[in-house]
Amino acid sequence: MIDYGTQRSTVEPLELELTETKVFVASNITSVNEPDTGDQPGFTGYEFGLVEYDKDEYIKLQAEKNKQVNSLMNAILGASESSTVQPEFIAAQMNRFMQISVQAASLDDDVAMEIADLYEAWKKDTRYEADKILKYGVNDEGETQLYRVIQEHTSEEQNTPDKVPALYKKIGFEGDGTPIWTQPLGATDAYQKNDVVSHKGQKWISTVDNNVWEPGVYGWEVYEQ
Question: CA spacing 20 to 30 A to 73: which of 40, 95, 146, 219?
Answer without folding.
Answer: 146
